[in-house]
Amino acid sequence: MKHIRLTIQYDGTGYAGWQVQPDMPTIQGLLEGALEQVTGENTQVISAGRTDAGVHAIEQVASFRSSSRLTPEVFQRALNSLLPPDIRIMDAGYCSDGFNPRYSARSKRYFYLIDNSAVQSPFLSRYSYHFHGALDLGAMRVASGPLIGRYDFRSFQGSGCGARTTTREIYRIEITQLNEFEVFTVRFHGRLVRIAIEANAFLRHMVRNIAGTLLEVGRGVIDAQAMERIVLGRDRRLAGPTAPACGLFLEWVAYPQGDMIDD
What we know:
By secondary structure, the protein is of the alpha+beta class. The chain has helices spanning 27-39, 72-82, 137-144, 206-219, 227-233, and strands spanning 2-10, 46-47, 56-66, 87-94, 107-115, 129-130, 149-152, 167-183, 186-199, 248-254. The chain is globular, with a radius of gyration of 19 Å.
């Protein structure tokens, strides 16, 4: 039986997240339905991250097993012909039998986009959270410091999280500002704030809760020096609100080089 790896890109706006849910459109559900049309097999697709409703992915990694004789390249073309245009298989290849997209991952990187312009471009409304008030990026960067390292991140855990442990390790956080950007070769001027977080793994809503807390720091609602107390307090009530899903992207997933993926 072949083990096939997929790199998937999707706009999560119209979906109830990655994971199959009854009577609701999901990324996993559409992929498994398309695979059944292609192979006639009832196939489970396993992903690196179970993104929530409205969350996007640039390089989601997933895998499935099939007894079909089709090559990864044929699978890629066949699936793209059946999937809606806001879900695309960007790459496909073979992977080792022991590869697991979630548990084999060395690290994952998400980023959150805040449109801090006075007026939001309609081309960004699906992919960023619009906040037009003043933001102190310096304070946000200071506040991000105590988050880096291995800690119990219970203060940033979303409700309904089934993780066995709330300890995670954040490797780096980058907060950057873009004053101009291009969409369809047209240059727009505004203020985009990008919060990028790389960690060994994430809890449910962890990135959105961190982004929401950093946004409160930027607004002056939470003091930048309070972040260490919030982390060590291990109490969700100490942190800021959950940022809306529309601004969150799974950027990439990293694996040990040559260890699990065989092209």
